């Protein structure tokens, strides 16, 4: 049985500010608000991000981290926009949303009160890139109010297209230092925070000058020789500056006197105000939570820092067909969507004696912020992983999972880094309660080669006409469908001639004919237009195509 889920307020790094009132506020153009509006002055810095009357500290912490990487920033905030050259009263920004980058265009009218911008603003009174970015993100999510409350990882992902993972530091994995080092080498974004126990703790300062409920960034690691032993250090940054750690390894602590002067100077050379070093063990004691946003290949494609292999599935939970709930609902759990992955290569870490494959599973529910106006919010979600590909109810009743999400939680995304021996596994994503409807995207990131295959039986039954009209497959019908899919898999592998994992339109035509469907040129063109993506047909679309043909041929003609 699964434990009770964790409520999102326990994970939030958002200060509980008052929400905007329902009073209609003036939205003047920035040309009307100031005589000399500027988009960006002297580059984007953390001082451009001052919080206003909106509880979106989580978003602003992500924006502050974005300013540390100019190329990532320009992906979100396209270069060359200004109030001077080619000004047309509009600006555009780009955000990652559930597998693709979308362009959001806004005008330059911002909500004000008594002539002052209400929400995020720059310390420079006439610089507006951060305020316009916040407005574009609010448009993407339906309203400013939809941004109240959240996790920094949500902003990280929407700014990079990456995948995030979260660690509770009181039970950190033994190789967390290595995990952080790999993430920094790849250019990932890292954040950390100290949990609060009540609203009174929010932004209270510890006696060593750490702020509770506040989002910090992790910017570096270093091992040094200290008194004849190796000391592991970690560099942390307060995006608001000024308030810094005052314990061991802080800026003026005596520990630095034990190091070689050149090494000490090198470690301090690139530090900014608000940035400090501390021992890794002290970091684990003082902070509660670490968030890592691993960048995908499209976020840093030029320098090759990111080497994750990405598998992506889009799915849905629908009441009565695919919304089975978690294992606490044994009679319906098996109807959840199911996805097969094959882990092929074990890790090559020389320090690791265990033969296993590292991978990261991330389950994200779509567009839930938009449902707040209807009284809904994030569902509580998670996933389980099984060692085999059996699909029947009895299998799940008698077998436990070999891995699963650490907990079910009502965040937009739940993710976990896992290690399993090479082999075939089945991932079952679900909501905590049965019958809850939502769309989702499931992503699997592997450090080594892997293969994937979707278990289509739930989605395909919606396309196949059932004989008894009940919208359910009987055991005989189920067996017939399963045998067809196995046969079609053999055909797919045979005609994927270059073994690329997808077929060209020519290969697809031969494969469709081999499956028993003789079509004219016009129908072949229609199928390619319908099922090809970027001129390639993957196994998912190939099976959907054959199911549709099977249904049509069974109704109108005879299949050979």
TrEMBL record:
In this protein, the active site sits at: 57, 214, 238
Alphabetical keyword list: Calcium, Hydrolase, Metal-binding, Protease, Repeat, Thiol protease
Q: Which GO terms describe its biological process?
A: proteolysis
Superkingdom of source: Eukaryota
Q: Name one GO cellular component term.
A: cytoplasm
Residues annotated as signal peptide: none
Q: Does the keyword Ribosomal protein apply?
A: no
- SMART domains cross-referenced by the UniProt entry: calpain_III, CysPc
Q: Which residues form the Calpain catalytic domain?
A: 31-296
According to the UniProt entry, its GO molecular function terms are: calcium ion binding; calcium-dependent cysteine-type endopeptidase activity
Q: What is this protein called?
A: Calpain 11
- Family from the record: Belongs to the peptidase C2 family.
Gene3D superfamilies according to UniProt: 2.60.120.380, Cysteine proteinases, EF-hand
Q: What is the lineage of its organism?
A: Eukaryota, Metazoa, Chordata, Craniata, Vertebrata
Where does the record place the EF-hand domain? 483-518
Q: Which organism is this protein's natural source? A: Oncorhynchus kisutch
């Amino acid at each position: 049985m699964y434990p009770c889920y964790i409520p999102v307020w326990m994970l939030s790094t958002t200060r509980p500010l008052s929400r905007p009132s329902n009073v209609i506020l003036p939205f003047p153009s920035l040309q009307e608000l100031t005589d000399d509006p500027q988009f960006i002055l002297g580059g984007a810095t953390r001082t451009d991000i001052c919080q206003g009357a909106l509880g979106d500290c989580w978003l602003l912490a992500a924006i502050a981290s974005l300013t540390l990487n100019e190329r990532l920033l320009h992906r979100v905030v396209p270069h060359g926009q200004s109030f001077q050259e080619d000004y047309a009263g509009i600006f555009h920004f780009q955000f990652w949303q559930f597998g693709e980058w979308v362009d959001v265009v806004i005008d330059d009218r911002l909500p004000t009160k008594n002539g002052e911008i209400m929400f995020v603003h720059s310390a420079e009174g006439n610089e507006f890139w951060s305020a316009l970015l916040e407005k574009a993100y609010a448009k993407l999510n339906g309203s400013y109010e939809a941004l109240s409350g959240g996790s920094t990882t949500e902003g990280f992902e929407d700014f990079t297209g990456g995948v995030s993972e979260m660690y509770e530091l009181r039970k950190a994995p033994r190789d967390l230092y290595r995990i952080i080092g790999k993430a920094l080498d790849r250019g990932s974004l890292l954040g950390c925070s100290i949990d609060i126990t009540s609203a009174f703790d929010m932004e209270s300062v510890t006696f060593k000058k750490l702020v509770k409920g506040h989002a910090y960034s992790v910017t570096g690691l270093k091992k040094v020789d200290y008194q004849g032993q190796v000391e592991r250090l970690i560099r942390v940054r307060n995006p608001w500056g000024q308030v810094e750690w005052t314990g061991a390894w802080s800026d003026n602590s005596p520990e630095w006197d034990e190091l070689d002067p050149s090494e000490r100077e090198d470690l301090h050379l690139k530090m900014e105000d608000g940035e400090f070093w501390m021992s890794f063990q002290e970091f684990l004691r003082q902070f509660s939570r670490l968030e890592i946003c691993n960048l995908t290949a499209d976020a840093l494609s030029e320098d090759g820092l990111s080497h994750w292999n990405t598998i992506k599935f889009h799915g849905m939970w629908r009441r009565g067909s695919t919304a089975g709930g978690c294992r606490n609902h044994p009679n319906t759990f098996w109807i959840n969507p199911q996805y097969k992955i094959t882990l092929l290569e074990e890790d090559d870490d020389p320090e690791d004696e265990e033969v296993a494959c590292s991978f990261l599973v991330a389950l994200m529910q779509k567009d839930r912020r938009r449902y707040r106006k209807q009284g809904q919010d994030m569902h509580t979600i998670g996933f389980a992983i099984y060692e085999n590909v059996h699909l029947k109810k009895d299998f799940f009743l008698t077998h436990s999972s070999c891995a699963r999400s650490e907990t079910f939680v009502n965040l937009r995304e739940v993710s976990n880094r896992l290690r399993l021996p090479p082999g075939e596994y089945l991932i079952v994503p679900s909501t905590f309660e049965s019958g809850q409807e939502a769309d989702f995207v499931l992503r699997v990131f592997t450090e080594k080669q892997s293969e994937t295959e979707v278990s289509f039986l739930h989605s395909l039954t919606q396309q196949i006409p059932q004989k008894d009209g009940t919208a359910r497959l009987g055991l005989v019908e189920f067996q017939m469908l399963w045998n067809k899919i196995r046969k079609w898999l053999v055909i797919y592998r045979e005609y994927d001639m270059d073994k690329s994992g997808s077929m060209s339109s020519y290969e697809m035509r031969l494969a469709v004919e081999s499956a028993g469907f003789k079509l004219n040129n016009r129908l072949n063109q229609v199928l390619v237009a319908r099922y090809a993506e970027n001129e390639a047909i993957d196994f998912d679309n190939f099976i959907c195509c054959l199911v549709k043909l099977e249904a049509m041929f069974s109704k109108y003609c005879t299949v050979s």
